[in-house]
Each structure stands twice: as C-alpha cells, then as structure tokens.
Amino acid sequence: MKKLNLKLLGGLIIVLVLIFSWITLGVGADSDLIYVDDDASGTEDGSSSHPFEKIQDAIDEARDENKDVYVRKGDYEENLKLWEGVELQGSDRDDVEIKADDDDDPVIKMYDNTEIRGVTLKDGQYGVLVNDGSKVYIGDCRIIDNEDDGIYAEEAKTKNSAILEVRDSIIAHNGWDGIYTEERKFSIKNNEIYNNDRDGVEFGKGSEGIFEGNRVKGNDGVGLRVTIDKSELYIKNNTFRDNDKSGLEVGAEGKEGLIDLNRKNKFYENDQYGIVRVERALFGDDQWNRSLKIDRGIKFWDNGWGGVSHSVRVY
Questions:
Q1: C-alpha of 12 from chain center
Q2: Which of 76, 80, 86, 232 is the most buried (most CB within 10 A)?
Q3: How far apart (Å, rounded) are the C-alpha atoms in residues 89 and 95?
Q4: Dist. CA 88–CA 115, nearest whole Å
C-alpha cells in the first residue's frame, strides 16, 4: 500500500512539474510577443488568439509594451517603421511577404537596436533603409524587386558599436545596388546577392567590416565595389561570378587603408577583370602594396580581361 501511495505521489509531482513548465515557458513566452495575422478580424489586442491585422499596429504596441513582433504566414502591404529595440520575426521568408504600400518609401525603416528575420521585403524605394547611427540585424530574409537599393544603410561612426549585420539572406533583382552602405561598421555573411541592376554591394570609404561567405553573381555592374581610403575590410571565402563588369573593384582616392582578401575567394566568368584597381587620385605602387593584400592562393578563371588589373587611372 505504501509503495502504491509513493507511486501516486511521484506521478502527481511529475504532472505538477509539467503544468508549471507549460505555464512558465509557454504562457510566458507567448506574453513576450505581439502577433500579426493578415486574416485577423474582430477584437485585435496582439495576443495569439486575437492578433493584429496590420504589422505597424503590432510594432507600435511592441514599442509601448517592450515586446517583440511575430508575423504569421500571409501577404501584407505596408510601409513600416521598426522602432528602437523591437524585433520583427516572420514565420518563414517564403510565407511572409511584405510589399510596400507606397513605392516611394522603403518597405521598412530600421532604427537602433532592431532586428528582422524570416520575411520577404519587396516593391519599395528600398527594401530596407537603416537609419543613421543605428545598430541592426537582418537575417534569413528575401529582399527583392525594390526600385533602388535592396538595403541602404546610412552613416554610423565606426568608433561606436552601431554595426550592420546581414546574414543568410537573398538580395536580388533590385533596381540599383543589392546593398549600399555609407561609412559604417558591418558584418555581411553567407548571403546570395544577384541580378541587381547596378552593383551587388558597395561600401562607402572609411568603412570597417567583414564580407564573408557570400555568393555575388549576375549583377549589372561590379560584384563588390570598395574604396581603400581609411577603410579596413576583410573579404573572405566569397564567390564572385558572372558580373557584367569586374568581380571586385578597389578604388583609391589618395589615402591608405586596408583591403585584405584571403585565399578562399573565387573570381570567375566576370565580363572584365576578377579584381580591378581604380586610381582616382595619385596613389603609388608602395601605397597599393600596403593597402591591398591579395593572397596568392585566390582562384581566378575565365574572367574576360584577366585576373587582377594594372592600376587604372581615371583622374
């Protein structure tokens, strides 16, 4: 009898533990999110059972309540402002499509300390406009068919922590650059950047960051455009293929910096050079040697004009 009572007591304890875990983990996690569903109707308070229909309503509520936003599968037509400190999570980038309501504005403008994940952003002036001085994260997104740049990041002083991070995303078929940044810090890794109407990516002079593991192909300009002057850029493990100009353009306007390419970069089937060096102001051979480091193990093949160009003067 005592053994039976002990078994019953043990079973009761397990049930209570499971109930407590469900309450603390399930309900607690749910209460940290504001929900959006394009099929929502009736009462809308942002809860899982009564989600908002509009994403901006959820973002505004999340800012006021210090919460984040979860967007369910659906098609949304809005121009969004992602306020400071808010994270926007879609159920899947193939299932959540956010199309600009006004194509003269960005699909989404990101402010400081914000994140977006798992959404498609299309048909705006920009897919994403990053506000000046802001630290942001963009991950597992699809940013396509925007009028100008897929991502445009305004200036952020490199001495502070305002870094632009872009991970595991598709940035394609935009009307200008796939990604354009003014002077700032960045970390751009493991993205597919292709078929944009100008360059794949351009970093403003004075930028600092890592460009790693990206596939950059089929862009109408160069794959990646950088400027040496006061920049510190590490270009690692990327593939630059079939761009209409060169795979990489390295510009020099008179001041030294550092552009460092490791041996695992690949340049092939670009219409002009694998890497073209463009001198826009007097820049001597010793300055090029100090500022541009090209590992001898880099692979070049089938580029229209050759692997690495001589210094092309345009002044």
A1: 49
A2: 80
A3: 12
A4: 6
More confident residue, 5 or 239: 239
The answer for residues whose C-beta is within 8 angstroms of residue 95's C-beta and 6 or more apart is 73, 74
* Rounded Cα gap, residues 250 and 277, in angstroms: 5
Instruction: For residue range 106-164, list pLDDT tens digits in order.
Output: 999 999 999 999 999 999 999 999 999 999 999 999 999 999 999 999 999 888 889 99
Banded pLDDT at 5 (limits 50, 70, 90): low
DSSP 137: E
Backbone angles phi, psi at 24, to 5 degrees: -75, -40
Lookup: tokens for 137: 């994260």
Q: Does 58 score more than 50 pLDDT?
A: yes
pTM given for the model? 0.90
pLDDT of residue 22: 42
CA 161 to the chain's CA centroid = 17
The DSSP bridge pattern shows strands 258-261 and 179-181 to be unpaired
Rounded to whole angstroms, how far apart are CA atoms 119 and 65?
A: 23
